[in-house]
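Q: What would this chain look like folded?
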Amino acid sequence: MSDVAPSTRLWTMRIAFSALVLTILFLHLLPLQTATGGLIWPDFLLLFALAWSVRRPDYVPAGLLALLFLMADLLLQRPPGLWALLALLACEQMKGQSRSLRDASLAAEMMSAALWIVGIGLAYRIILAVFLVDIPPLGPALIQIVVTAVAYPLVVVITHALMGVRKPTPGDIDGKGVRS
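A: My prediction, written as structure tokens:
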């Protein structure tokens, strides 16, 4: 019976993450702001993916992240695969750091996430420039990078308090039945 519960929880959380991403994309595509020059929102898709990658890497496997990020690229009319690849690399690196960040403070986790957010933003612009693709204006892009990095603690609070995605403790059993 104990083997069924972790597996069920694992798949429930993977479905919950997919539903969260679909909800974020749905809200992003709604025509809520029809005038130009409005509010610049953080990239919640990237923020939730980073937060879940640090807190429970087994809930967001690379294949699921790649599929969801690629779908976001297609729906948001970005160059297909570029943002998805950069975001996937950041999430996988955060997964690799998850054990060391488990014992670290929120400030260390925020700093690591902020560095990845800035790195993704800069790499995205550089790669677009190298391939002579139209680059979005620098000002709004920098504002979005800053707003996204600043919003990370809010996403961590939502992830922890409302969704129950917490950092594993040393005795927890993950979805594969292995102690962390």
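The chain has six helices and no strands.
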